[in-house]
Sequence to fold (732 residues):
Amino acid sequence: MKGDRKYIILFLLPTAFLMSVFLYYPFFKSLYLSFFRTKGFFDKKFVGWENYERLFTDRLLGEATLHTLEIMVYVILFQVGIALVLAVMLDHITRLQSFFRTVFFFPVVISGTAISLLFVLFYNYNFGLLNTIITSLGFEKVLWLSESNALKAVAIPTVWHYVGFYLVLFLTAMSKIPTDYYEAAKLEGISGLQKTVKLTLPLILSDIKVVITLAITGTMKVFEFVWVISRGQNGTEVLGTYMYKKAIVDQNFGYGSTVAIYMVVFGVLLALLANRLLKSEEFTY
Amino acid sequence: MKKASLIVLSVLFVFSMFLAACGDKNEVKNNTPNASGNQGSKEEAVKEEPPKKDISLRVFSTFGGTDAARDAFQAALDEFTASNPNVKIDNDTLSANDDGFRTKVNTDINSGNEPDLLFYFVGADAQGFIDAGKVVPLDDLLNEDANWKNGFSPSALENVRQKDGHIYAAPLTGFYEGLFVNKKLFADNNLDLPTDWDKLKKAVETFAAKGIIPLSAPFDQSHYIVEHFILTAAGPAGQAKGLADGIDPNWEKGYAAIKELYDLGAFPKDAATIDLGMASNYYGEGKAAMILEGSWAFGGFSGAEVKENTTVIPFPVVPGGAGSGNDIIGGFGSGFYLPKSTYDNADKKDAAIALLKHLTSPAIIQKIATANGGTPAANVEITGLPQAQVDGFAMAANSASITTPVDSKISPETFSTLRAGVQQVVTGKSTPAEVLQEAKKIEDANK
Fold:
């Protein structure tokens, strides 16, 4: 056993190396760049805390943060919520369970960009699917991506895309609950909704916590849905698209890096906060 | 003992993997000539006369994907490899529509992974790697080879000259931008072509009332709106000043005019969220009567009827604007660069220069221009073009002035601010003056 440890460490090294090259090096490079004003790739000058001062006075960044938080609420309520409801229902059936599981999981493997393009064709004002349907029913065309609607319209595919992933996580968690609990519950006369609320949900609470943390950190990274469907216009700018616009479109890598650092700090804080709020005793069985 | 040596061996193995991974980039740059050098010397030993060394050149350009000149460009490369069998060409492409294109080129150059010939923009976009000495000025090469130099039209060469007075890029085809008009829709509605502001306003009102999109344009990718409204508002001289030395008061009139048209219902209802592709789609499908676009746009219009009925005219002067009404945006915005790394590589230098001269010879320029509808950088006649493209060339030839777009005169971030300002102004969230002040602030910070 003792000799094995050396080998374990040896085999962990390549991963550590790759992680440092592709994750930690870029992170520290961003930290470094966030103190510079850059113009393209060849020209940068040290500006101290100027980018950070801009960060705290940037109205657009504030809006992007609020939009990200709004999507986060939708994701936690609907993505996690729908996944949980579906998981409870699937857990109760045995026939066709794997069929439904596959059907619900399928969107996860489709790329977000492809789904977004699909929704571009749904929402398009002039020849989108939705407007074609409602005009053929005799109604007026609707501007789906208007200023008041656009963020919700973008949130729908965002939510839909990952429901299946959390569903599978919940199902796996539920399948781990020993049947004795349910048998005991049956003897006590608990069934139906009560069984779900008082037995199943408390027993998978730690998994729900993991899923909520995943959902929060996942929402920080939302990019392709917004970028493809609305290009961040009409009140849909989120942190991911704002950073991309600053760094890649504007070639202001300095401020783009500063926004990236802000996203990391903000994401970690939110995840910690969520963990604190959901703190409870761990079950073991 | 055995165990220890095993560990040492495994450590060595792992490290050699790292080294292989790290060395990859250098391999492309340095080993190719060595490898071909070895091959060459081997062949020398066999044969008595030394044959030409095998050379592989990576040509990076935008002639790929859906580009209209893709096949013509590939044919030009094939022509070269047919007469120079020792040269292998790696035709590396990326679409210029993508923001990633600039990033890819700059990262390549910055990390020592330059292509052997690079097709890229001139002007502010290229200033970074020119200042860093990554590409070679072509002036001496042009002067040494009168035949090559005289193949270009002098105005095209002047157009690609950088601020420092040197020419770094050999131009191929140029472009013009203008107001693309669907003549049939205008005739069907008894409207005159929008040659002045009042006619444009009348057309907008008429089309809007009929449910036809008057002027197809996106607000986010509003490059061509911003370029044209600022040009006709400030005139060529006022536009060329950029924002470095203060705000030209005429620029405001451009934004005010955008709002005036918006209030008349000029833009698509979903202008805020569509992209350029969708805007072009609306026009190409005949759902829109006008669009501001460039000479490259012809290929993208899907409807054959729309293509036949399109003509191109200069954008009319906005109210109170300083433009003459016949000023257009255009020029030779791109060309082939010869990276310094290729120039300093004795094996590649001659082949790369020969390829450069081949790709920018009048015969090839003619073929590319025929394919993509751009203005040729050589004095060649382009025949067999559709009427719309002939109209476009005529517009460019008869124009009072041809100016490069305003984004070549300001920093990319400033231009983004101007673009973002379009929706702010039309919805009344900001005034034109506020948008310009914000842009000026960004421009100053970028100095």
In short: Chain A has one domain: 66-277. The mean pLDDT of chain A is 89. The two ends of chain A are 29 Å apart (CA to CA). Chain A has 13 helices and two strands.
